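Researcher: Sequence of Hsp33 family molecular chaperone HslO follows. Predict its structure.
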Amino acid sequence: MNYTDATTRFLFEHTPIRGEITQLSQSFQEVLGKHNYPVGVQKLIGQFMAATAMLSDTIKFDGILSLQVKGQGQVRTLMAECRNNEAVRAIAQYNDDFDDSGELLGEGQLAITIDPDKGQRYQGIVLINDDELTLEKVLENYFLQSEQIKTRIWLFADQQKASGFMLQSMPHSASESSLSQDDDEDWDRINFLADTLKPEEALELSSETILHRLFHEETVRLYPSHQHRFECTCSEERSTNAILTLGQDEALSLVEEQKLIEIDCQFCHSKYAYNIEQVKAMFSPKANDAIN
Ligand SMILES: [Zn+2]
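Model: Prediction complete. Tokens:
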């Protein structure tokens, strides 16, 4: 199980408590390698990436789960995505006069979006009206208020690795809606143990070792890990679609004016460029037949 980039689900036998542990190394470093981010932004990106991978693993689906925050602090936007529980990417925009000692996000809002390949898109918005709130607390509150799931989240990142740890107490069926005394005791005991996890352990030890160190007196069942990799979802097809949505008149006047329509992917720096013949071809009846 010693992958450098993976998420593992686990559960505590005979309790309603389950968890996720995520560790990212290579994929995180690839994201950091695309931009020259200040240290504070790097760590925040790591936390967002770990959270996104971890949350994606709780819902196992084909599609994209993303976390996007817009704030009034020094980091204007930060977005992390996990596709099909595997491919991760992230990007941040921050003020030019960024100062590592200053406030990172400030007040703002966090959007949690689940965009399945098939089926309906879901988006939950959480207002961050207290600039002391950490991403951990924002997500914990979200699960409690929107999903009625007791949740604890721990996120760690340095400039090389990012790690996430999560515990959830799954609700009982409607007939036994309140948690029993035993469940509360299990929850408190397991949280107490999890709270002893140190950042250096979360970042340096394998997931298996961490779970063993924390919970060797519990009966923990591990599920097969999902490996993660950096991968951008930009493509020739998506760029073409972006131009098609401009409409023929606007696309043609743009390409006539600029000679080329250039689309730069902010996530991976891939460049897509189209000259006038290519743009005309996109809108020709023939091209549309091929698409249909
Ligand atoms: Zn890209």
